TrEMBL record:
Similarity comment: Belongs to the peptidase M14 family.
Active site residues of this protein: 383 (proton donor/acceptor)
GO terms assigned for molecular function: metallocarboxypeptidase activity; zinc ion binding
A GO BP annotation: proteolysis
Main location group: secreted
Organism phylogeny: Eukaryota, Metazoa, Ecdysozoa, Arthropoda, Hexapoda
Record's protein name: Zinc carboxypeptidase A 1
Length: 430
């Protein structure tokens, strides 16, 4: 008769083998430390560039570009001493923002509703799987005759790129709202769905005005594959999921044909800002282009918003050059009204300016592409909560979902009011 301990060990080994590869085996970040480094000299810049190039145990949120720069880095647990040694030997300043990033992820789990949550339980106090977002969109379409489904195409993995249109009156100018292009930025789809809900159901006269006098085009989760991946595999995933050799994924907001593969993007396949094999190599970015090719002029789309997180910024073109947009002064005025409205809602401070002025150089993004290729003069990328120095990265506490939504709705009201006063959206000029 076999020893019971041998049988038990065998069962454990079988269980371990069978569990390998199951979806519940998510990436974990136990004792991964989030730090902020202050780069004082060109030697510091060179050192951090070398470290990012040579090691996959450090996740850089931004690139080392210049002295007097703050750079946020996620340090793998087994590299904590090495980072401490680098900092001390080279005289850099280092602040620990988060000693264990996995704790943030674990705490967030309690605010994530299950995949089978019905549309009737959708709210802005929790985060939701893609399946529930889609079913909630279906509910809005079924219940409101002025809401219709949009199908922009399919993702790399074959998921639908879904949107919806809100139109209460023929002849309106259009506003396109793109959200969820970066997978881990969960607050972005949450804000998009809140805006949809308010435009459909709100009785506030200012919101009713927006609903009745503009046509709205929403894509709440452009990067559906990546968004699903963050719930099931890796909470901090940014890109889509298309394989490139041993690596996976393209930064969709570096895949548009505007100075593609230029500053602020990478041609290296494993980097977080990999721009793809060519402009519009990715079906998700291409879907936006093809939609606007067909409908931007015909449906008089005059405004484009792209929702991201984090840093609390209201940015307009350009990211790839310091040259000013042709209506820079107007975009600045509109942005100032928007951030003032945000401050007046819950006291949060956002900054406004061109992308290259406010965040960092970047190229191949949707905002610059849309502004440069269509007759769409009002274009913004909005970096939602938290602030640039946030210790929570993209893991915004669920308690902040609704306040974020409210302040962005108010910013839209203020921005569109100012744009009207500046003479935009006049029917005889479209």
């Amino acid at each position: 008769m076999l020893d019971k301990s041998i049988i038990l060990l065998s069962l454990c080994l079988i269980s371990a083998v069978m569990s390998c590869g199951q979806d519940e085996n998510k990436a974990r970040y136990d004792n991964y430390r989030l730090v902020r480094l202050t780069l004082k000299t060109t030697d510091h810049v060179d050192l951090l560039q070398e470290l990012e190039e040579e090691s996959d145990s450090y996740t850089f949120y931004g690139h080392a570009l210049r002295p007097d720069q703050n750079l946020t880095v996620l340090v793998a647990a087994h590299k904590i001493y090495e980072m401490q040694d680098i900092v001390e030997r080279n005289g850099m300043d280092c602040t620990v923002l988060q000693p264990n990033i996995q704790k943030l992820i674990d705490d967030e789990d309690s605010t994530v509703k299950s995949k089978n949550t019905p549309a009737s339980e959708f709210d802005w106090d929790h985060y939701f799987h893609l399946e529930t977002i889609f079913s909630w969109m279906d509910k809005q379409i079924a219940e409101n005759d002025f809401v219709e489904a949009l199908h922009l195409g399919s993702t790399y993995e074959g998921l639908p790129i879904r949107g919806l249109k809100i139109s209460k009156k023929s002849g309106n100018t259009g506003i396109f709202v793109e959200a969820g292009i970066h997978a881990r930025e969960w607050i972005s789809p949450a804000v998009a769905t809140y805006l949809i809900d308010q435009l459909i159901h709100s009785e506030d006269p200012e919101v009713v005005d927006l609903a009745e006098n503009f046509d709205w085009y929403f894509v709440p989760v452009l990067n559906a594959d990546g968004y699903k991946y963050t719930f099931e595999k890796d909470r901090l995933w940014r890109k889509n999921t298309k394989p490139y050799g041993r690596c996976k994924g393209v930064d969709l907001n570096r895949n548009f044909d505007i100075h593609w593969s230029g500053t602020g993007s990478s041609t290296k396949k494993c980097t977080y800002d990999f721009c793809g094999s060519k402009a519009f190599s990715e079906p998700e970015a291409l879907a936006v282009k093809l939609f606007l090719d067909e409908f931007a002029n015909k449906n008089k789309i005059q405004t484009y918003f792209s929702l991201h997180s984090f840093s609390q910024l209201y940015m307009f073109p350009f990211g790839f050059t310091t040259d000013r947009a042709r209506n820079y002064d107007d975009l600045k005025k509109i942005g100032e009204k928007a951030v003032e409205a945000i401050k007046n809602t819950h006291g949060k401070i956002y900054q406004t300016g061109s992308s290259i002025e406010t965040i960092y150089p970047n190229s191949g993004d949707s905002m610059d592409f849309v502004y440069s290729n269509y007759n769409i003069p009002i274009v913004y990328t909005i970096e939602l909560r938290g602030p640039p120095e946030t210790p929570t990265l993209f893991i915004l506490p669920a308690a902040e979902i609704k306040p974020t939504c409210e302040e962005i709705l108010n910013s839209f009201i203020a921005a569109l009011k100012e744009a009207r006063q500046l003479g935009y959206y006049k029917r005889d000029e479209l």
